[in-house]
Amino acid sequence: MLATDGTGVDKALVDRVHTHGTDDLYPDGDREKVAFTEEELTIDEAQKKRILRKVDWALVPYFSLLYLLSFLDRVNIGQANVAGLTPALGLKGNEYAVALSIFFVAYVIVEIPSNWLLKAMKPHRFVPLIMIAWSIVMILMGVVQNAAGLIATRFFLGFAEGGLYPGLNMLLSTWYPRSKLNLRVGLFFAGATLAGAFGGILAYGLRHIQTGAGWRFIFFIEGAITFVCAIPGYWIIVDFPGDKQKFLTEQEAAQWTRVLQQSQGVTNAQLPFTWKQVRQAFKDWKLYVYSIMYLSIANPLYSLALFTPQIIADLHVAGAAATNLLSTPPYVLGFITTVAAAVVSDRYLCRSVPIICCMSVTLIGYIILITDVPAGVKYFSLFLAVAGVSPSIALAISWIGSNYGPIYTRATAMGLFFSMGNSAGLISSNVYPKTESPRYIKGHAINLGFTALAIVCAIVLAVENKRLNRKRDAIHPAKPDGSDVDIRKAGNEEEKVKWGLQGMSQREIVELGDHHPGFRYVW
């Protein structure tokens, strides 16, 4: 653990003094350096909003589409199973559960190194490459003839998909002020809720193709759609703020960099890779609580995505075909609650309270599901479960994305966060065995427990982050959002005295990241 002075500031980092010079800590990457006067870099609210809209249009719509396709391609096996996959492939025993689980084994392995690769290769190259890879695997899933083929393709699907979600979330976290981040992450994650809705409608149509194996066309068509959407990514996907951008002028890029400097301070510094940044993430105990919280939210999410069609089918409220359609409405509600919670969270720069409230709604949903009530009431409880868990995922992601830095510390923290969290897929894939139909008491009870654990983790993190902020305020008063930490003046003696960092180089000060005395944690 970090040896701190009680404020979360790493004393070892502060006490160690080396000479690194005054590096450009927001390097321009491949963007040509253009000198602007202070007046040219000054930006009013109208101009800030105009650039923000340009950033939004450059990132959010396409990223949301990519995640919709990613989530759809990973969970469409649930729709295919309702459409006849298991008998067609002769699956026996737990082979279907193994096929679900094996995806997440590969998925979690690649998440930390994939974030490093994203930074090294640049997003506009890395993301289309992995998308093309998983689209080919998805199409191949449509031609498998037995359990071995299904399990193998699911493994490689997880391996190829693993880099998308953590990578794009990290990229989003570098482009937005903390007070604007959660709405964008919410809209991005809304792709998953739309995937739940769109997947049911698409599966309903594809299963009616008169070939005797309509479930195969779920994989064929959805894999082909992903392939087509991946190609333009090379030209559409935006790289990190310091890189050359086509959608911003040089002056706009410099102005937006100034906005990010003022709003994120040292945590968004684009330092070169060092193992020190990696260790800084692993030594923080809060990272493991964030990760457990995410796992506890993700387990109900994946369970619902994978098994909602089967749960509805076992309620016998409709025929097999209509079951695909009935899985759509809960996810429409989930989309609405995701956006609404994101707006509220950004307005008050608070993540914990919305998570606690939303997961409490999910808790009520699982309490109803686990009891012996009429089928219609159980169907209603699915709305509650989805409506609460969907916004909680986005809230958790923007929470951790706002509280770590510099860049490779954040990349490592978010990689571990997603890796641990998405291992929930290994659990959720095995808690709804067909033998427990139609009540699935064990599966609902496990998700009820995870939901309660997520609430506890959110409370612990809120209390600790507020404690650290109060401790730092007592020594070095700062704005609640930490925006008065001026990274451009990190090496200035007056700035060092202000924060009690005398004797440290500019590089060392920026390496402090979220341990800087002027940083304030989002709670």
UniProtKB/TrEMBL annotation:
Domain Major facilitator superfamily (MFS) profile: 59-466
InterPro entries: MFS, MFS_dom, MFS_trans_sf
Localization terms from the record: Membrane
Cellular compartments per GO CC: membrane
This protein's record includes keyword Transmembrane: yes
Keywords: Membrane, Transmembrane, Transmembrane helix, Transport
Domain of life per record: Eukaryota
The keyword Transmembrane helix appears for this protein: yes
Membrane topology annotation: Multi-pass membrane protein
Residue stretches spanning the membrane: 57-76, 96-114, 126-145, 151-173, 185-205, 217-237, 287-308, 328-345, 352-373, 379-401, 413-432, 444-463
MF (Gene Ontology): transmembrane transporter activity
Protein name as it appears in the record: MFS general substrate transporter
